[in-house]
Write a structure and sequence with these properties.
By secondary structure, the protein is of the alpha/beta class. The chain is 44% helix and 12% strand. The protein has an 8-stranded parallel beta sheet with strand order 2-1-3-8-7-4-5-6. Belongs to the histone deacetylase family.
């Protein structure tokens, strides 16, 4: 059975003080239930667990985490993150991270586990930025490497923004291969070096995007031979996205997800999926694009 991390606090600390459509975190599960893609039993509410703290602290420095948990980050650090700092926001970030770790455990059991939020790939070892405070998939990767027989991990980051924080965290760790395909002129303007970066030109259309992906991903899986995949399925590759500069359609975004999931299923690899970004002006575009990912997971894996 597909298991999906969702907690009401994914949205609420941001509801009144952020300019982007954070209501997607409430609307996605409602849409999944409405369309019959999921039942209530598919969802689980993550909890903050002491057992996860070890892996969070492998991804981030004690000094950064201690200041964040105490809500004592300096103003410069808070500006980098982009959200007003609060206890509720810190709790949200910890819940998201625990949701991804738990979804990773479900992936080992069921083939796939998902998180309505997550994909906080701009969180670095010693600071947060770009609306990211704790790197959820990096934390879950350390859980796998420390507690399971997983030896090689592939991160497939298809958010429109380069996963600079994740790239930096694992820059000297060959056990985690970072593949990032992103907008060349999108944030972050100073890119880090992933194991494989593919920067795309502005207005990159469906055909170009899918051609590059289809040439790259199967070869990577064959060459790297991962035991586990983390997929960051951001829908900010859409032409309608306010923060993205690519030119993909909702159908193209769906075709992207279908191809990635087919490759993973063909190789019988477990995968954890975090939603990442999506900032189209019309909230319906965001919800439709994200909902397609869940529909495809159900069709392909179950």
């Amino acid at each position: 059975m597909l298991k999906i991390a969702f907690h009401p606090s994914y949205q609420h600390p941001l509801k009144e003080n952020h300019r982007f459509p954070m209501e997607k975190y409430d609307l996605i599960p409602k849409q999944l239930l409405l369309e019959g893609i999921c039942d209530q039993e598919n969802f689980f509410e993550p909890e903050i667990k002491d057992s996860t703290e070890k892996y969070i602290r492998m991804s981030h420095t004690d000094a950064y985490l201690d200041a964040m948990y105490a809500v004592e980050l300096d103003r410069k650090a808070v500006r980098k993150i982009g959200f007003p700092l609060s206890e509720a926001l810190v709790k949200r970030e910890r819940l998201i991270t625990n949701g991804t770790v738990q979804a990773t455990k479900y992936a080992l059991q069921n083939g796939v586990g998902m998180n309505i939020a997550g994909g906080t790939h701009h969180a670095f070892t010693s600071h947060g930025e770009g609306f990211c405070m704790i790197n959820d998939q990096a934390t879950a990767a350390y859980y796998l490497l420390e507690e399971t027989d997983i030896e090689q991990i592939l991160v497939v980051d298809l958010d429109v923004h380069q996963g600079n924080g994740t790239a930096k965290i694992f820059q000297n760790d060959p056990r985690v291969f970072i593949f990032s395909m992103h907008g060349k002129s999108n944030y972050p303007f100073k890119k880090e070096e992933s194991d494989l970066d593919i920067p795309l030109e502005n207005d990159c259309d469906d055909a170009t995007y899918l051609s590059i992906l289809k040439e790259t991903l199967p070869r990577l899986v064959e060459d790297i031979k991962p035991d586990f995949i983390f997929y960051l399925s951001g829908v900010d590759i859409l032409k309608t996205d306010k923060l993205g500069k690519l030119g993909c359609t909702i159908d193209g975004c769906k075709a992207r997800d279908e191809f990635v999931l087919d490759v993973i299923k063909t190789h019988q690899l477990p995968v954890q999926i975090s939603m990442g970004g999506g900032y189209s002006k019309d909230i319906k575009d965001i919800i439709n694009a994200h909902t397609n990912t869940y529909r495809l997971v159900q069709d392909i894996f179950f």
